[in-house]
Write a structure and sequence with these properties.
The chain is mainly α. About 70% of the residues lie in helices and about 0% in strands. It is built from 20 helices and no strands. Helix 14 packs antiparallel against helix 15. Keywords: Antiport, Cell membrane, Ion transport, Membrane, Transmembrane, Transmembrane helix, Transport.
Amino acid sequence: MLLLSFAAVLLAAVLVSALAHRTILSTAALFLLAGFVLGEGTTGVLHLRADSPIVAQLAELALFAVLFTDGMRVGWADLRSAWRLPGRALGWGLPLTLLVTAVLAHVVAGLDWPEALLVGAILAPTDPVFAAALVGNDKVPARLRHLLNVESGVNDGLALPFVVVLLAVAAGSDDLHLVDLGTELAIGLLIGVLVPLVAIALERTRWFAASAAYAPLNGVAIGLLVLALGKATHGNLFLAAFAAGITVATFGPRERAAFEHFGENVAELLKLAALLVFGALISVEFLGEISWTGWVFAVLAIVVARPIALWISFLRSGLSLREQAAAMWFGPKGFASVVYGLLVLESGIAVGDEVFHLVALTIVISILAHSSTDVVIARAFDETREVPAWHGTLRRVRRSVTGSGRRDGRAVPSPHGEPVPGDEPATDRPADPTGDQANAK
């Protein structure tokens, strides 16, 4: 039933994707809402619970794919070429967002400091998928798009060690367990670096070469080998995935280019499937279990934590106020936060259920809020938009009623400094059927 549901929702998402690209509709929100409707707590079509094996397995695989493709977006050359603004967002914005969110979780939600810091680490990463209209719109300033894209591509991996360590602290692990945790992270990092290096070096020899048809599968093979070795050696899979992606992007630009579109599509499919499953875990009863302080925390975590953190991070950065405001708002809590929340639930810590409820509520509100406002904000950056025809009619009506406006026959300028259509003075020239005069700048 899960496969049937996913296929049906995927087809619906494909059919409305063009409309979603132009409006406040969001394919990610569609999968989340579909999961909510089909979940056991609503219609009961999908019988899924947080402890169902498919939930953990799908979440693990999807996050591995997401971190691998995220790492491929941010090779060292990319980071060095334009690091100033993303560096501020990651070096200052990420830890400050973590700390402000933790303070809110402690003061508002009443969590102890270890759990509050854990919530801050889970909710610190961002996801550009839920603000795709902003990141992918060429009318938005390039430096803002680059900032959001690099930041969201890197912060999942940077937040991971904090989540793992703070989860161990919240679980009351002793020094021996912390040493084992460090070993797990080190093994994951080692696998993530060595496997791609060996694979790329082999392809550079005269004995091996990938054909055009198989070139996109090179990245898939590297990722699967990293995943398999990570499981076999008990290395940290997620850190291994992120390190492998960065290594491929840095030392294998040819492999990166061949894998890019194919890999992103695979990661997107897995992410959407996991969002459907996540939505199925949310129900009216689930939301009703959250206290009013939890709802207040979730709202403040979105509208206060990141704006404060980035406001401090971008002081004297040269970004315009509009660009800063857009960057502050578009910090959607994405798929990495979903999986990190599930990791907490599986850990068995005393307040794991409460932490998961807070994280899940924040993610749901964030997805709905950010994915429904990205198109609106992106349009605000489009300086070439035509003023609607009704705008000029309204100005003429208002001018005739109030007697305002110019009396010298010249057009009344719009707020953007251009004549408003419909306010041009009458001339003896014939109408231009091609519209070239109206479009001339």
